[in-house]
Amino acid sequence: MSNIAIGMVGTLCLFGGILVGINVMVVLGLVGAFGLAALVGFKAATALLSTVFFETTHSFHFSVIPLFLLMGFFAMRAGLGEDLFEATTKWMGNLKGGLAISTTLGAAAFGAASGSSVGTATVFTKLALPQMLNRGYDKSLASASIAIAGTLAVMIPPSALVVVYGILTDSSIGALLVAGLIPGVVFALMICLAIWITVLRRPELAPVDRTQYSLREKLVSLRLAGPLVFIIICIVAGLYIGVFTPTEAGGVGAGLTFLLAILRHRGLRGVKIGDTLMETVRTSAMIFAILISALLFSKFLALSGVTNALGEFLTGLDVAPWVIVVLISIIYLALGMMMDAPALLAVTLPITHPVMMDLGYDPIWFGVFVVLLVEIGAVTPPVGINCFVVQAASGGRVKLEDVFRGLVPFVLAGFAMLLLLYLVPQIALFLPSRM
Hints:
54% of the residues are buried. The radius of gyration is 22 Å and the shape is globular. Helix 19 runs antiparallel to helix 22. The protein has helices at residues 3-19, 24-40, 42-58, 64-77, 80-92, 98-114, 117-134, 139-150, 160-169, 173-179, 181-201, 215-220, 222-241, 246-265, 273-304, 306-316, 321-336, 341-358, 363-377, 385-393, 400-405, 408-423, 426-429. It is built from 23 helices and no strands.
């Protein structure tokens, strides 16, 4: 059997294993390991395995993942999502669809600190959904706005998912983190615009909140929300001007968020350091295991020649490059309905990244583009994971079909953002090009 044939069989085994429900990490590792053994022999494959394990767990650059995760868990443990929602509600709540817009902006800031799409959706479902429903908001609009707002967590830096992309593609992590800022903010504003237009067309979906807040109340609401936003700005600014590396940025963010958590709980007791560290270790171990398995599979594909063959086939097609981009986008949207984001990147990037580079696209731009694709997939029916999270965290107040029914304007906003990012790549490349 030729090397390419072995590579194709391995790829089919990978997707077959995923479809029958085998854990993505397990099937990636098994296919990669056995595939390498079939290509280069058992001894050489064993040497490659040990190299991948050592490089992944020993490299200083990989420490950025647990540090960003620790920052996020401290933010969630401190209840900073509650502070952000209170602040945005007092400043924006009187607009048409004001509570939904407040949720989007609060989730954008909290998601930047937590880096977790699912975590952000869970927190804001518990915080914002009861408030919206109690004030007469339509169930579909309220729940769908929370589901899509959760996706902002991986767009606005710092983002662990962007770091995963950087590791898998050997791209500059600092540039990738900075690149997500403008697209993330623009996407948040597009979601707010989608809410405003929806409510303008159908005012009955979201009664206007007539509660008035004094300037003093508004300023007081920023007592902890403001410092968290300031921390995020400092991290991005520090990366941009080169004050610290991504790993140092993660350390600074985790340390400052830890101090905010202590202030929020007036001591260490409420922070639950032991539980927070254990959650960080568990999540880091899962991501590292996926990365190790993905790198094994990537080496297997490269040695088999499948990556080069597929790249030559796609780039050799007599079609415009945008057609290839559309095909790749459809693949990500489809798979994003069924897989979590790190696993999806691990499975697809060994194939899609070389193709996009052969077509001449910038790796930093593609990183932002593909992360947005993955997160739109996370809310797209029939399996969008954020939708299930919102429904589960609602305590039975909304049904899954309510969430799906309200997603149409937000998914359209996501597609509009993808188109804008494709037509104006400088949205993602402007800041990295000036670092």
